[in-house]
Design goal:
Blueprint lengths: L12 E5 L5 E5 H15 L9 H15 L6 H4 L4 H11 L2 H11 L42 H15 L14 H16 L6 E2 L3 H11 L2 H12 L3 E2 L6 H19 L25 E3 L38 E2 L28 E2 L1
Parallel strand pairs: 1-5
Antiparallel strand pairs: 1-2, 3-6, 4-7
Helix pairs in contact: 1-4, 1-8, 2-4, 7-8
Length: 356
């Protein structure tokens, strides 16, 4: 992993532990990388609009994938943020992405995320490492999804993100225990998934979900462990279907965890922290009826190492917006009033999921 983010942002890992001891890790640096990318895309609306610029970077992305120019760490370190954005959107469709890589790449293996570096060459409009397509017509990578339309559908998610505290907050001062709870609630959400059924997350859950999807192989393994299948994510379900599915998800959540899936935690996202270098490891069972607790350990250069958190797994301390379809399909936008109808400033839905 790159040290670029570690120089300015604290890092802590949340480790999701199975009963057999197997663990899956989601780090705060993964989350920061994702948030910084979203902020950058919002500053450049041409990357979410139909036109030559978007088409150009989609073409470059496909050429790089076909020529195996994104597979290794040193190659990913050189990616422009525009290519990273197109790659990100493709990875938001885990079943399609996996199949596209396995069926079309020379080695038959998915290209996985190897670094946590956010590209700094923001003004580089063209990626000069991509060869002229006229001399490489024999190389081909054609995603099974329409990447232009997939990018355009992300505008709804980005508009909701602009209303969220993570759009403007100081990521160097993140409340550690809140990040733990966000990941915990994301796992609780995944545990509700059933094949051939639609479940809809809140926006905070969706932010963690999108972060996790940036690591395709890790996501695939974790999803199989938690759900028993690969939970797909899509964003094409009609709003009317989405709204009804969210209410059903909220009801299922209430029955399973005796709490509301909607909680207002954004106001507690950022708190002062005296240390900027530490590791926070959290272990939580994913197969018990609830989380049995959290064991916290820290490594620090001194000062206040922060708080250690305990939890009973009711998922009451995280919220956001999104959707999931556990049988293919996905999610679109939703509007409307209160939490139960997927509306409101923070509790809007976005994203999607499904099972294979």
């Amino acid at each position: 992993m790159s040290d670029v983010l570690s120089k300015s942002f604290p890092n802590f890992d949340v480790k999701i532990q199975k009963q057999d001891g197997t663990t899956f890790t989601i780090s705060y640096h993964d989350f920061v990388h994702h948030i910084l990318l979203l902020r950058q895309v919002i500053k450049h609306p041409e990357m979410t609009q139909e036109g030559d610029i978007l088409e150009k970077f989609i073409k470059q992305y496909c050429e790089k994938m076909a020529r195996q120019q994104m597979k290794f760490k040193h190659q990913q370190l050189k990616l422009s943020w525009q290519i990273d954005w197109i790659w990100h959107v493709h990875r938001l469709h885990p079943l399609a992405y996996y199949d596209d890589c396995c069926k079309q790449l020379v080695d038959g293996e998915p290209v996985d995320q190897k670094v946590q570096t956010f590209p700094t060459n923001y003004n580089n409009e063209y990626d000069t490492t991509t060869s002229n397509s006229s001399t490489n017509s024999h190389v081909n990578f054609v995603p099974s999804i329409d990447l232009v339309q997939a990018v355009l559908r992300q505008r709804d998610f980005l508009n909701k993100f602009k209303k969220h505290i993570f759009y403007t907050c100081n990521l160097e001062r993140m409340n550690r225990s809140l990040f733990v709870k966000l990941v915990q609630k994301y796992v609780l959400f995944m545990k509700l998934a059933q094949q051939n059924d639609i479940i809809v997350p809140t926006f905070n859950i969706d932010l963690i979900w999108h972060t996790h999807l940036r690591y395709p192989m890790h996501y695939r393994a974790c999803s199989i462990a938690v759900c028993g299948f690969v939970l797909d994510h899509n964003d094409s379900i009609e709003a009317s279907v989405l709204t009804d599915a969210f209410q059903k998800t909220a009801d299922r959540w209430k029955k399973a965890y005796n709490s509301s899936i909607i909680e207002d935690v954004e106001k507690t996202t950022v708190i002062p922290s005296r240390d900027t270098s530490f590791t926070h490891t959290v272990f939580a069972s994913i197969f018990n009826d609830s989380f049995v607790g959290i064991e916290s350990g820290f490594e620090s250069n001194g000062g206040d190492v922060g708080d250690s958190s305990g939890g009973n797994g009711d998922g009451s301390n995280g919220d956001g917006g999104g959707t999931s379809n556990c049988g293919g399909g996905g999610v679109s936008s939703c509007g409307g009033g209160g939490a139960s109808s997927c509306g409101g400033e923070y509790n809007e839905c976005g994203g999607g999921c499904g099972g294979d």
